[in-house]
Records
---
Amino acid sequence: MRLEVARASRFARQEAERHFPVRVRIAVPPGGLGRQLAIMHAWLDDTCGATAWASAPAGLAGVVNDAIAFYFADPAFAHAFVNRFCCGYRIEAVAGAFPVRTEPPAVRRGAAAHKTP
């Protein structure tokens, strides 16, 4: 069974890399992504469209679920994804992967009304 899962993961990664030129690799926290993964998928579908992105396991051989890769057809979508879901105060690779943001981004506030004299 484990060998079949490894083959399916490798096949998914190869297909995504062949169809999508941009990859963002995310480190999975020890407790997993939980509901955050469903939120990410919903955001990706709404923002990019269901056919403009893919995801696949991106961990090291023998390490289960330590990283996930998101693949994009357009670099602008990858950039928006990193800005939305990765730790914005320190976007840096940790062992080649971005850490996942644990808090939602700040809500944008509109500017106050301005009257000219």
Note: Confidence is low (pLDDT under 50) at residues 88-94.
---
Amino acid sequence: MLILAKAALGLCATMVMAGVYVFREGVIRVNVDEHREGGAHVHVWVPATIVSVGMHFVPKDQLNRVTEETRPFLPVLREVAKELEKYPNVELVDVADARDHVRVAMVDGKLRIDAVSADGDVVHVSVPARVLRDLADELEERAPGV
């Protein structure tokens, strides 16, 4: 019985450590609600680690094409992402008219984009700033000549 308890404790500790590793970079959250007949309601929460891990599974020809197209913008993306990390709570853009409202802000170290249309459609996207920097670094590493 003692061996079974030790095995269970080891398994639980391993699962906790795996969870900590997977969620160490935070969570990417996407919520879309269309308020109309047959409208979509999509709510996705994924660990931000999926971006860096997913980069290793992108076919090389597709990744080469993307890095070629984005090469001029990669240094800017890296610098913007690095600077965003310095301002964990700041409003970047807030635009509203009689029909729509869009807000882009850093909230607790995450780039958050909120959009609400006059039809009642709502989109919320939240991405940790660190993920943007890691993505820019990864793309720059794979794009020679930057």
Note: The radius of gyration is 20 Å.
---
Amino acid sequence: MNPTKLAIALATAVALSSPILALSAEEHGSRMEAHFKAADKDNDGSLTREEATTMPRVAKNFDAIDADKNGTVTLDELQATMNKMAKEMHERGAQRFNAADSNGDGTLDKEEAKAMPRVTKNFDAIDADKSSAVTWKEIHDYMMAHRQDRKKS
């Protein structure tokens, strides 16, 4: 599985494994830890392939998460994989932003934003300071707020 799909799968796994979605990174981590501990039937601090079946996305990506290739997945390995994938996704977004910023001024006007369809679709909402241009920070802030709004509903 390619890294992007793995990152999406892992993020989805954690989101879907919780009936009440976390609103902060800290809450998100504690919920993931609770689900991990519930799956860890023998309480040895790691998941076997069988135990991981209660977390379907983890089970599906078991080999990629099992960093030390010992046949089990620890909470640290799961968190490290998720952190790595989140960082990579953030970096890809920043690269796409920089590629779209054709004049190199650190902002995207509506024309430049066309290279990023989701930004174009939500341009006016993202443009928090109503400057007719969006910064990477505005995009990031909008995405984080939008994610939290979805979690509340």
Note: Residues 1-24 have pLDDT under 50 and may be disordered.
---
Amino acid sequence: MQDLFRQFSHRVSQATGTPWAFILAFSTIIVWGITGPLFDFSDTWQLVINTGTTIVTFLMVFLIQNTQNRDAKAMHLKLDELLRGVQGARTGLVDLEDLTDEELQTLQSQFESMREHAARGENVTGEVEEMEEEIEEVQEHHPASPAHTA
């Protein structure tokens, strides 16, 4: 069942992301608008487009989310493999997706600070080492992190 849904959501996301899908949707709206005078712009006429678009939107949310989840997971795995395969790479950054929003914001601020210092030609080695220690400390306290599950 899961594989069938994966294949279906992949095909639908591929099809709906085309110019032809947009043209079809746009044409539907144009035809609906043109038929307004034929139905005296009745409540039923309005209900048809409202119901149709609501149903399509509701279903597309799940299909798109499935596709995005798979894409994000694949991207994480590819990046993890690259980090683990490059000698000297800081593998402490591999599982950042498990951190809280506040922890990610703190890391982003630290990276911005390092970038500013590096742009001024300052040595950021100490900051990098300090950040790595903080990342390891945070990950040790996270139940989902590899350091905690290993």
Note: The CA atoms of residues 4 and 32 lie 34 Å apart.
